[in-house]
Design goal:
mainly alpha
Length: 135
């Protein structure tokens, strides 16, 4: 990244990273329900670790996308799009509410697809700026 990067490119550079961190923290909050389960201390720790596996995977994906924006962006889009029908149907079968199931999708999988699109946009904006700078 050059020191003369335009402000809009800097914003697009940081936006997917910040949004992804916030989305991972949001998803991780759902793991805290293990503390209301009446399990013993060790069982709670094991359950918490199991519930946080998706967050650990998302962190690894973020680290990858941080370095390889284009490929990481595609991976986030595929992850969000791939999990959307499963999460939607699982929640719909559990609560039989189209509205609730849509809200769950909007808050859990769509943000990662947006993150993916923003990583890809950042990649192409930086590539365009490099080409303009060398021309």
């Amino acid at each position: 990244m050059s020191g003369k990067m335009k402000k809009s490119v800097r914003i697009i550079h940081w936006l997917p990273r910040i949004l992804c961190i916030v989305a991972i923290l949001f998803v991780s909050m759902f793991a805290l329900d293990v503390f209301d389960s009446g399990l013993s201390g060790m069982q709670q720790i094991k359950a918490l670790a199991m519930h946080l596996i998706p967050s650990f995977v998302l962190i690894l994906m973020l680290v990858f996308a941080w370095r390889y924006e284009l490929h990481g962006g595609v991976a986030f889009i595929m992850l969000g799009a791939g999990f959307t029908p499963f999460i939607f149907m699982g929640n719909y079968n559990m609560n039989h509410s189209l509205g609730t199931s849509l809200v769950i999708i909007i808050t859990t999988t769509i943000p990662f697809m947006v993150v993916g699109m923003l990583f890809i946009l950042s990649y192409f904006l930086k590539k365009r700026n490099k080409e303009k700078g060398s021309a």
